[in-house]
Each structure stands twice: as C-alpha cells, then as structure tokens.
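Suppose a colleague, Dr. K., hands you the sequence of a protein chain of 90 amino acids and asks what its three-dimensional shape might be. Before reaching for any lab equipment, you can write down a predicted structure in token form. Begin with the sequence itself:
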Amino acid sequence: MTARRRAGRGQAAVEVLALLPLLVVVALIGWQLAAVVSAALRADERVRREALGASGAGRVVVVEEAVRVPAFLPGVRGLRVPARVGVRTP
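The predicted structure, expressed as tokens, is then:
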C-alpha cells in the first residue's frame, strides 16, 4: 500500500503568511484610533478641570485646549484633538 499525500498540505500556513501584513495594518489602525480617543478624553478632562476652577461670580468662562495625539501611522504627525467648554459661574 502506498500512502497518498494530501494535496493541500501547507496551504494554510501560506495563507496565514499572506494575511499577516493585513493583520498588522488593522492592528495599527486600531491602536491609532485608541490613541485618538485617549487624547480626546484627556483634552475633555483638562478643559473641564480648568473651567470649574475659574473664579468670579456671574462670569462665563470658556476654556479651549488641544492635545497632541501620538502618531503610529504615517501621515498623522501633528494631529491634535481640540476641546472647548464654557461654564457660567453663579
């Protein structure tokens, strides 16, 4: 009896290697999105803290802040997330 070899042997490994660059790009895009969301939350926290710390009765305080986003992808250098909040003090 002769043993028959499977025709598709090793095909899955080749497909995974071909898919690897796409998986890396998807992971980098996800990481960049997480960095943008994190920067937006930091900007929001900063403007709220500064606006609530404002003193003076009957004033409207407007605070603006722009937080730099770390770049993991090419073409997004210098990306900043702006935040603005206005508070009327009693």
